[in-house]
Amino acid sequence: MEYHIDHYIVGPVATNCYILVNEDAKEAVVVDPGAAAGPLHDKIVEDGYTPVAILLTHGHFDHAGGVSDLVSLFPDRDIPVYAYKGERQTLEDPKYNLSGNMGVEAKRYSATDYLEDDEVFEVAGFRIKLLFTPGHTPGGCCFYLEDQKLCFTGDTLFNGSVGRTDFYGGSMSELVRSINEKLLTLPDDTTCYPGHDSLTTIGDERVHNPFL
What we know:
By secondary structure, the chain is α/β, with parallel strands linked by helices. Helix content is 23%, strand content 31%.
C-alpha cells in the first residue's frame, strides 16, 4: 500500500492535526481535527480523497473541537469517530474538555465508536490498534499502526517531553507508567506523531527523554 501523512498545525495552541491517506484507495483518516474543519475539508476535497474516519487521541478542545463541523461538511458520508471508551466524560463536559476556558465557545464533543484498550480496527486499509495511555486525560490514547511503523501519540508523548498533567484527571505517575508500558514496548524505529511539536521515534525517546 502506498500512503502518506499530511500535517497541519491548527488552532490557538498550535495543535498537530494529521491526515493519513491510503493513496491506492484515495481514502483519508483524520487524526485530531482540532479547530480546522474548513481547511481540512477543503484539502481533502481538493486532493480527491474520501474521508472514512476520524481518530481522537483525547477530548480536549484543541484536538476534538473540529469533529462535528468536519463531519457536517461531508453530509453524504457517515464518518465514524473513534476514541477510547474512558474518554467520554472529557469529550462531553466543557469543564473537562477545556472549551470555554481558552477563549473559545464551551462545547460538548462526542465519538461514535468508543473502543477498548488494545482493540484493533481497520479503516482505509490500515490496521490500527488503540493503546490506552491515561495520564494527560483519564481516557487518553494513542493509535499504533504496526505495519507502517508509526504511532499517533497525541498529548501522551512528545519529542523530548510528555503531556501536561495539571488538567482534570491528569497524573504524572500514570502518564509515565502508560508510556513505559504501552509505548516504550514498541520497536525503536516506530515514528511518533505527537499532538504538539515535532516528530520523534520510540528509540530516541527511550534514550533522551528526561521524563522517562
